[in-house]
């Protein structure tokens, strides 16, 4: 029960990594706010977790919706201990063919979503004197990978943002760290693997010999969310089967 009575917001909690994080946090005693644009999957995860979960439909790239979600979470639970900025979108393609629309979408959701959610919870965490923000970046932010430049750049921005926020918010007791997952078998991961050239590039040379599963990342997130990581901020944990070390 490492998160007993803590209130955790998980964005993109309706499926994939976010679903695994929401369920993992609930197993450790947290009250969980599941945030997603997809009402059907968000509600399903809410029901599966039970009374300690609430689903609030929100598009994280829309600031007013994010503020309304945080207000609602406060009304329901009265505090916010952990924000897991996990919602994200992916688009593959050749660099010279990536449209303005793709670049805009990657930054609106993957970067501004993190900004809006974090800006909405920071004043609450400041008042509490403590809080944890976990930003889900990607190993695509730290190694050069072909065929998803806009996505990689947005995830690089998430890492820079993590360090800048950590430096500024440490004085208020707010810790900000990042998780960098390697390719993981979720609907988003599958879309990255749809392009055979990219699949070969991603799969070849994973030292631990396989792609990731959502559960492979839950332990790192629980560590970053719990008091066990209290003397840690501005850091990243890379969970990628060893790919980025070589
Ligand atoms: N799966 C991978 O291989 C992988 C690797 C590295 C990083 N990541 C990152 O992990 C995070 C989760 O990815 P996943 O693989 O579980 O993806 P996924 O597509 O399976 O799930 C993402 C969830 O986010 C939700 N979402 C998308 N846009 C949203 C928005 N604007 N507002 C609110 N919710 C929104 C979707 O509805 C979905 O439920 C993403 O940030 C992704 O970039 C994934």
Automatic annotation (TrEMBL):
**Any one GO molecular function term:** oxidoreductase activity, acting on the CH-OH group of donors, NAD or NADP as acceptor
Q: Which InterPro entries match?
A: NAD(P)-bd_dom_sf, Sc_DH/Rdtase_CS, SDR_fam
Quote the protein name from its UniProt record.
SDR family oxidoreductase
Name the domain of life this protein comes from: Bacteria
A Pfam family matched by this chain, by name? adh_short_C2
Q: Which family does it belong to?
A: Belongs to the short-chain dehydrogenases/reductases (SDR) family.
